[in-house]
Amino acid sequence: MTEQTPRQFAGRPRLDGKTAVVTGASRGIGLAIARRLAAEGAKVCITARNIGPLKEAAAEFPEGSVLFLAGKSDDPDHRAEVLDTVAETWGRLDILVNNAGINPVYGPLSDLDPEAARRILDVNVLGTLAWVSAVCAHEALDFRGRGGSVLNLSSVSAQTPAHGIGFYGISKAAVEQLTRTLAVELAPSVRVNALAPAVVKTQFARALYEGREEKVSSAYPLKRLGTPEDIAGAAAFLASDDAAWVTGQILNLDGGLLVAGGAA
Predict the structure, then answer these.
(1) Which amino acids are annotated catalytic?
(2) Residue 74 — φ and ψ, nearest 5°?
(3) Taking burial as the number of CB atoms within 10 A of a residue's CB, which of 82, 127, 188, 208 is the most buried?
(4) What is the DSSP letter of 93?
(5) Topology (CATH) of 14-253
(6) Which residues form a coiled coil (predicted)?
């Protein structure tokens, strides 16, 4: 894939002067989104569980454009540390990307461990809500006053049954309804949207395509799986003022899979 060039508007990158927090951003979709936001002019704080990969990821950003803090996305102390650090360093927050998510199980719902199900909901749903609540409540960041933008990561598995990852899809269906509800409750000062990818070639999704990529991609009208950069471009649009009249939307990024009647 050729390197993407940030879209210009009035001679400036779309996100010039903006700041962002991207969770789950040491690799894959989260890192691609963070890179794209930075390329469009934003300063970005990236978070993830493990400091090593996070530090390596941060080294790829332009000097002065990135902060990185390790911790669990569902840990309130970690959330407070991230937001306080952003406030102290940049004095504002404009964009929150809730990318952190887990799927520790694979198999039919009838075999699902209830404790694993609770853990998925804690991180994917309650963790997403907690980040939004913490950002809106942080007075120093003035997220509402600045007209902030929230992007939640969903999945096409929220909209159609997906073999082996049924409860993950259920959690993402909750994220989609959470997105719609927050869009109404936080309007007009904050926009809230979600991205719903199909299979994207990341380490997180390897079990869904590894060793059978050609067969899996044949169900997609565009005849390929997604890349993290495909998701990042859409994220940059929704985070920018180009999407100033867009809220409460779920943007499917699936190569045409759903309209063709395919399963996630």
Answers:
(1) 168
(2) -95, 10
(3) 82
(4) -
(5) Rossmann fold (3.40.50)
(6) none
